[in-house]
Amino acid sequence: MTQDGLKQYALSSAASHKTPLYGTAIGTSDLTLQPRSRAILRHCNLVTSEYEMKWDAVFRHSHEPDYAAPDDLVAFARDNGLAFHGHTLWWHESIPASHRESSDKVFAEAAMQHLRVITARYAGQLHSWDVVNEVLEPAHGRDDGLRGTRFLNAMGPDYIGIAFQEAAALDPNATLVLNEMGLEYAHPEAERKRRAMIALLERELSRGTPIACLGIQSHLTAMEQPRHHPDLRAFLREIDGMGLSVMITELDVSDHLCPRDRAERDRVVADTYRAYLDLVLEESTVLAVTTWGLSDDRTWLNAFRPRPDGSPQRPLPLDRALRRKPAWHAIKAALLKAAAHRNSTISD
Ligand code: XIL
């Protein structure tokens, strides 16, 4: 059954850590719909939680946490031999409503409690964790480029180091990831963010913060994302030089700037996937490539970035009927190329 899925190209055996896994974001609704869960098993060897592991999701009904949904997701991965990427421990966008107004002290204690309980609950079962998400925002004007958030206000800039230390103590086997958006874009603010990221990682690594991997979200836009991107290339080389691996954590290609014609859209989206993946896979030790959904009916982009003409976005590898699109073939070709390159490097 797996013979012709993407997971075949994302080699998960043999020199495993040397070849990228391929995965998708999922929710519990994907597990009950047979065609979708079958497609996940056919194409993926890693899954991540799109939202049900987030702090606000776990506390959505009351002051008591509810882990039923993340338990189901982790069990699905375990029962089917898929790696699981935890998303995400601390993110300013996923603070439970009950803590939006709480005092700094109460907030800091609750954040720590959440991190400890959920990390311990799944310890030993996860491939990796996005420990913190989107911590940089140079436009907020701080010298260190940190985003002004409740976490920063309540705990100070050490909060990133604290989160990683706690997570490492509770789940020493998970690869700990610092996940960020907008590092991959071409505009001047993105370059500021890349510089701030290098400085942040240097600071944190020099004080022993156990960051193993940089998560690059990679929510791309077709007709905007440059095919050649020397600044991103240089940045990835610096990250590699620091001994960090990379995960492409939330890849999709918005087609909101593309013409309506479907074939044309699919072609431009696929080209964007291919050029981007080729570049990142060439420059980095990529542990996994994850798309933010597998089929177009599961994209968040129709809400977040609707097309001006109202037609549904086509940003993912499969269409609504779970048929392969040019994007699927582009990902396959990029993974095959990376695997061939790595195998030749290994046997050198
Ligand atoms: C999005 C999910 O796709 C939505 O379903 C949810 O409502 C909001 O979050 N960056 C992230 C992800 O790190 O967690 C976001 O996911 C997309 C942007």
Automatic annotation (TrEMBL):
Domain of life of the source: Bacteria
Entry-linked Gene3D superfamilies: Glycosidases
Pfam families noted in UniProt: Glyco_hydro_10
Residue ranges of every copy of the GH10 domain listed in the record: 15-334
UniProt keyword Hydrolase, yes or no: yes
GO MF term set: endo-1,4-beta-xylanase activity
PROSITE patterns, alphabetized: GH10_2 (PS51760)
Protein name: Beta-xylanase
Organism: Microvirga aerilata
This enzyme's EC code(s): 3.2.1.8
Keyword terms: Carbohydrate metabolism, Glycosidase, Hydrolase, Polysaccharide degradation, Signal, Xylan degradation
Hydrolase is among the record's keywords: yes
Family: Belongs to the glycosyl hydrolase 10 (cellulase F) family.
InterPro entries listed in its UniProt record: GH, GH10, GH10_dom
GO biological process: xylan catabolic process
Reaction equations catalysed: Endohydrolysis of (1->4)-beta-D-xylosidic linkages in xylans
